Amino acid sequence: MKTVIMAGGRGMRIRERFPEIPKPLIPIRGRPVLEWEICSLREQGLRDLTVTVSHMADQIMHYFGDGERLGVHLEYVVEQEPLGTAGSLFGLRDRLGSEPFLLLNADTLFEVELRPLVAFHREHHDLVTLLAHPGDHLRDCSVIVSDAEGVVQELLTPEMERPEWMINCVNTGLQVMDPVVLDRWTGDRGGPVDLDRHILRPLCGTGEMRCLCTTEYVRDMGTPERYEQGCRDVENGITKARRLGSRKRAVFIDRDSLLAFRGRDNFELVSGTGEAVRQINAGGALVFAVTVSPGPAGFSEMEIRKRLDTLLGRTGAFLDGTLVLPETGLVEVLHRYNIDPAGSWLIGTIAARVNPGCRLARNWADWMASGLPEFAKQMGTAE
User: Fold this and answer.
1) Which CATH number fits domain 247-379: 3.40.50.1000, 3.40.120.10, 3.30.565.10, 3.90.70.10?
2) What average pLDDT is seen over the chain?
3) Which of 92, 94, 106, 292 lies most in the core, judged by the most C-beta atoms within 10 Å?
4) What 3-state DSSP class applies to 4?
């Protein structure tokens, strides 16, 4: 599969930290973020890579050369003038041919198994498949609104108004794309073109674009705060801990312990919940809200999930999923996500009804006070 890495951005928000180098060269443990990407792609058999460059292009090309040092083949497309996040793709159109290609940004730290994304794309024959994940900074990212089958209905870019309640489903910037999408653009092909706004958003609601949500690690390096977090995550092993093949820890929390229903459309988080979930996120463990019974009358499971995701998102925390379980328990979930029950917790009154071999805590408030510090220490994130 052809792979295109977009490395032409100026990185205005991170430039205060690294004014002398382009964003793809910002170091993480002594290696540029783009090198981490290239090595991950190489390990998955993707060795023929095209990199689009513009800002400080000479530095990028000098560092990576033809890619032989890293075991890949690199070709460059140099933008003489900034062409936005998609403009350079039109110059590549003939080289892309007719087969789907992988497109990603050069400033993203990730530990993602790409084969499921490619397989999902081929299975559904869509024009574009976006890789999505729950994010911890919903205010300044592109949020995906999709149906139960993953068909994208809306792609809400940062400047767009958000609904009051929404599922935490963020566009990671990794996507598989059919080149024919580029042929649909009728605007100026020699000027700046924005990928999200000009290429992807017109596909919303057409049934030609889906998203696949992952629990794996993806973080952009666009701000000093995210850069620092990414460095800590690599140092602490968090990036590898969320790999599909890694044996994971998880915390399953009774949904009623997280979300308090105060009256008609009056929901709020239980005190301390946002900070507690954020600490679990920071440790690399998965977090699920669990229920075996319906929510308040008049609210669907999707409506409750939207409220819970939105309220947690406002605190910088996120869930990896909401589980409505049968009485048989969590065994299938443990298998699907490769979770180690002995290192995981099941918390809340639901613990008496569903027990897959996890450690049990009947009271969420007590666990936040005593179990969470122990758990954070085990995950290497306790201060």
Assistant:
1) 3.40.50.1000
2) 91
3) 106
4) strand
52 touches 6 (CB < 8 A): yes
Place of tokens 């995906």: 144
Please give the Cα distance from 336 to 16 (Å, whole number): 42
Half-sphere exposure of 308 (CA within 13 A, CB side): 32
Q: Which architecture characterizes domain 3-235 according to CATH?
A: Alpha-Beta Complex (3.90)
At 266-301, the pLDDT tens digits run: 889 999 999 999 999 999 999 999 988 777 777 888
Taking the whole predicted model, whether its pTM rises above 0.90 is answered as yes
Three-class DSSP category at 89: helix
What are the CA-CA distances from residue 92 to residues 8, 30, 96 (Å)? Answer: 15, 32, 6
Amino acid type, 99: E
Structure tokens belonging to residue 289: 């809200």
Closest CA to 32 of 58, 59, 4, 52: 59
Among all chains, which residue has been given the structure tokens 């994208």? 152
Task: Judge whether 3-235 and 247-379 match in fold.
Answer: no
For 78, residues 6+ apart whose C-beta sits below 8 A from its C-beta are 53, 54, 57
Please name the residues in contact with 168: beta carbons below 8 A apart, sequence gap of 6 or more. 134, 135, 138, 143, 309, 310, 312, 313, 318, 319
Tokens of 177: 């794309």
For the ranges 10-14, 245-249, 330-334, the maximum mean pLDDT occurs at: 245-249
Give, in degrees to the nearest 5, the angle at Cα 13 between 193 and 229: 115
**In the chain, domain spans:** 3-235, 247-379
Structure tokens at 247: 């044996």
